[in-house]
Amino acid sequence: MAWLQLKASIAPEQAEWLEELLLAEGASAITLQDAHDEPVFEPDRGTTPLWSETVLTGLYDDLNEVEAMIERVRRAWAEQLPDDPAPQIEYELLADRDWEREWMDGFEPLRMGQRLWIVPSWHEAPDPDAVNLLLDPGLAFGTGTHPTTALCLGWLDAQDLAGRQILDYGCGSGILAIAALKLGADTAVGVDIDPQALQASRDNAERNQIDEASLILDYPEKIGRGEFEVVVANILAGPLIEMASTIAARVRPAGQLALSGILAAQAESVLDAYRAQGILMDAPQEKEGWVLLTGHRPG
After folding, report:
1. Structural contact between residues 189 and 219, judged by C-beta atoms closer than 8 angstroms
2. What is the CATH number of domain 3-96?
3. How far apart are CA 156 and CA 149, in angstroms?
4. CA separation (Å) from 132 to 135, 186, 251?
């Protein structure tokens, strides 16, 4: 069926008001997008920052009386925010299309390093003899497309993981832990504070036929105080610095550490935090403004 799309450019502090008004008019979905190319890299905890100019879009399955709907929104806006001019709302009809198929077609297999491929679950593997990790990009906790994830996967691909024990701190989709297992690791532990992330990891582990005994998934406080031969954490610079003592304590003597989710300008602060914990850190590896920091604990 066709859809009606309403769209307006607004200031970030106005987004919540307009979203409520469009939902009150029966919007099936609301999306917020950047009007320009203005990334928000690392927000303060507890905040949901928006771009200086945000495009808010409402999607409707009712195509009737759109002008009357927009007028009601304008009147409600004037009542609630009399000092702020109402945003200019544009509308268009979207033809019926196979949106799910078009979305799926946007994801292609990605090669990471020499051995590893990330393959969307509906694609054939380009190289059946490679190490193929099947992933559902709909689980948006790490798909391999972001530079930070790609840096971590490339690093894992270059390591000899045979028989080793891995900790994935902040596992998200489980992509790093599962990749490590498929690259030869003996066991992996994935921890995350988000129950949806743990479920996404379980789903992807099942999709890749990972033995339940090989991959333990739980909250950080539930996994005891064990040390690991390889620890990876693809989070953000702020949490990595705050948890430096906790994460570094998981690296056993002669064990390796890989950290990502870090902007190039933040690298030195993260390096200092982990050097202070006794980790010998290597020079950063950079990709598209993001860095991977690696190191090891002396044996």
Report:
1. no
2. 3.30.70.120
3. 11
4. 9, 17, 27
Give strand ranges (E) for the chain: 3-10, 29-34, 54-60, 90-94, 110-112, 116-120, 131-135, 165-169, 187-191, 215-218, 228-234, 251-263, 280-281, 285-287, 290-296
Task: Indicate the class that CATH gives domain 104-296.
Answer: alpha beta
Euclidean distance between CA atoms 116 and 130, whole angstroms = 6
Unique residue bearing structure tokens 């929104």? 73
- The residue extents of the domains of the chain are 3-96, 104-296
Residue identified by tokens 């056993």 is: 252
Structure tokens at 127: 């190289």
Sequence-distant (6+) residues with CB within 8 A of 69 are 6, 25
Tell me the backbone φ, ψ of residue 283, rounded to 5 degrees. Answer: -65, 145
CA–CA separation, 248 and 272 (whole Å): 12
Task: Quick: pLDDT tens for 157-213.
Answer: 999 999 999 999 999 889 999 999 999 999 999 999 999 889 989 999 999 999 999
Mean pLDDT check: name the lowest of 8-12, 62-66, 183-187, 229-233.
62-66
**How far apart are alpha carbons 5 and 57 in whole angstroms?**
7
Outline where 251-293 has alpha helix (H).
267-275
Q: Which residue has the higher pLDDT, 156 or 101?
A: 156
Pairwise CA distance, residues 149 & 141, whole Å: 10
